[in-house]
Amino acid sequence: MTQNPLLLLLLIGASLWVARSWVSDYRAALAGRPNDRALPGATPASASAVGIASLGALFILAGETGGEHVLALSAEQSRMTVLFGLYSIFGAPVIEEVLFRGYLVIENRGRTVLWAGVVGISLLFALLHPFLWEWGDKGLIAHFSAKAWFSTAAVFTVSVWFYTVRLFGLNPQRSLLPCFVAHATKNVGVFAIKYIQGFVGGWW
Q1: What is the C-alpha separation between 71 and 67, in angstroms, rounded?
Q2: What CA–CA distance (Å, rounded) separates 79 from 74?
Q3: Contact (Cβ atoms closer than 8 angstroms) between residue 77 and residue 199
Q4: Helix (H, G, I), strand (E, B) or coil at 109
Q5: How far is CA 163 from CA 38, 61, 73, 111, 122, in A?
Q6: Alpha-helix runs per DSSP H in 87-176
Q7: What is the pLDDT of residues 21-55, one digit of tens each?
Q8: Residues in contact with 145: Cβ distance below 8 Å, sequence separation at least 6, in sequence order
Q9: DSSP 8-state secondary structure symbol assigned to residue 3
Q10: What pTM, to 2 d.p., does this model score?
Q11: How far is the C-alpha of 115 from the C-alpha of 54, rounded, in Å?
């Protein structure tokens, strides 16, 4: 993901606009006046659904961190600015969850197609993260290191989890609220780990 401060500020602004619209739709649903054109998942969710979603995200993060340590990959992780950290906590969870776990869901075609779609879209979501590739001055560069594959697998796993908490029985209205909170919780953990390990540097 880019560390360009101007682009990050634009993405944060866009995420705030999307979040404002989603909250407006959410409040309308709570008041019993749902918006026919509401953003996906703008419905209530129980505290237990939100809590389980967040705990699952932290469990995956713990596994990812432990795996990096066992495989001696910790020193290969990318650096992060404070501004990128803010975007990852307050921006990415909104934009990515509305787009992927919100709109990119194959519904009304049975559970097999639904979950096949979850796997396929999660694979796309993982591949869009620049671990196996990089766009530089010389064009597209492929990376097939152990760290690149490991990080891609971790993103795939957490995407499947975010889909799961939108679709599982504790979230009957398929709210995106558990997804937002779980995604933000994981990214807070990532930022904290990078900060402790010395991989956060500079405000922007």
Answers
A1: 6
A2: 11
A3: yes
A4: coil
A5: 19, 16, 27, 13, 9
A6: 92-96, 111-128, 146-167
A7: 999 999 999 999 999 999 999 999 999 999 999 99
A8: 76
A9: -
A10: 0.94
A11: 21
